[in-house]
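quick one before i forget lol
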Amino acid sequence: MGLGAESAFGDSIITTKLDHAVNWGRSYSLWPMVFGTACCGIEFMSVVGAKYDLSRFGAEVVRFSPRQADLMIVAGTITYKQAPILKKIYDQMCEPKWVISMGACACSGGFYDNYTTVQGIDEIIPVDEYVSGCPPRPEAVLDAVMRIQEKAQKDSVLKDRARNFKGILDA
């Protein structure tokens, strides 16, 4: 014997919180945009291939327009010349948005310790998940996508996620 809608409609209705319903849809319909600049971009191709199949996790709709994507995967070396472009693409993505930094070069500059290479993209945009390795294994990328899904399920519809982040390109 239920109260409210359950008593009137029986088993033909399900009640839940708005956050749970929206976050369930968000977590299983990630639309990634790959910012692939080096060998990690080639490695990402194996993640979306038949053997590892990123589509099993609801992220098969790889977009190359930032206005249609909500998950950015930065795969490869980022130079200071590319940094404003990366920031602009991130700003054009729809909310809520998540970022995966894939590979040693995107995470920490890799073995490029020089004046042209950004020593980690977290100087430019906020990063949600880091995938280490040179190049990282496809399983590690899939693990990062699953952790993004877990974060999406715990998110709030009303919360603004990365409002307080200030990168080196922010005024």
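fyi The longest strand covers residues 32-36.
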